[in-house]
Amino acid sequence: MLVLLAGIFVVHIATVIMLFVSTISNVWMVGSSTFGAASSGLWLMCNNTCVQLSVSSADEASLKAVQAFMILSIIFSVIALVAFIVQLFTLEKGKRFYITGAIMLVCWMCILIGVSIYTARFTGKIPMSTNTHHGYCFILAWICFCFSFIIGILYLVLRKK
User: Fold this and answer.
1) How far apart are CA 146 and CA 62, in angstroms?
2) CB neighbourhood size of 42 (10 A)
3) Is 151 exposed, middle or buried (0-12, 13-18, 19+ CB in 10 A)?
4) Which helix (H) or strand (E) holds 1?
5) Which residues cross the membrane (predicted)?
6) Which CATH number fits the domain that encloses residue 92?
7) How many distinct structural domains can be found in the chain?
8) Integer distance in angstroms from the first to the last C-alpha of the chain?
9) Vertex 159: Cα angle to 81 and 83 (nearest 5)
10) 42: domain range?
């Protein structure tokens, strides 16, 4: 049981770190431009230098929603990690980690909503770029989506022994 708890804890910390990286880094979309490799993220667009991401007024609300949901997913993931540590030391024997699991599933929903909006609205959209494809941050966000779901379910069924 101790090995299972340690494994879940390590995967949870890895998920938090990957969420930070995928939200902060600007490699959600990658393409080729006349200036070299171009990348676009949630905050900046980078060629040789990084500039504020310019989006049309129709897509601005969608970008703000993606930014908000990714930040919320980080917050809920950290809260779930703290709740797990608190419950680990205060929960009675035989009780389940319901609060931690519920918070982690809220994190899962935030990731799902944020990445789905990005997929629907911004896939392949880098101005003056050709040959665009998804970058590693986009892939990390989907990996965090899977990990947060698995961790949330494991917390719900896990008993403290």
Assistant:
1) 23
2) 22
3) buried
4) none
5) 6-28, 67-90, 97-118, 138-158
6) 1.20.140.150
7) 1
8) 7
9) 20
10) 1-160
Report pTM. Answer: 0.89
Residue type at 27? V
- Residues near 63 by Cβ (< 8 Å), separated by ≥ 6? 42, 53, 55, 121, 122
Cα→Cα distances 129→22, 75, 100, 108, 117, Å: 22, 33, 43, 32, 21
Q: What is the pLDDT of residues 108-152, one digit of tens each?
A: 999 999 999 999 988 777 666 677 888 899 999 999 999 999 999
Look at residues 102, 7, 110, 3 and name the one whose alpha carbon lies nearest to residue 67.
Answer: 110
Identify which of 26, 36, 47, 50 has the alpha carbon closest to the alpha carbon of residue 122. 26
Residue that is written with structure tokens 């961790």 in the block: 151
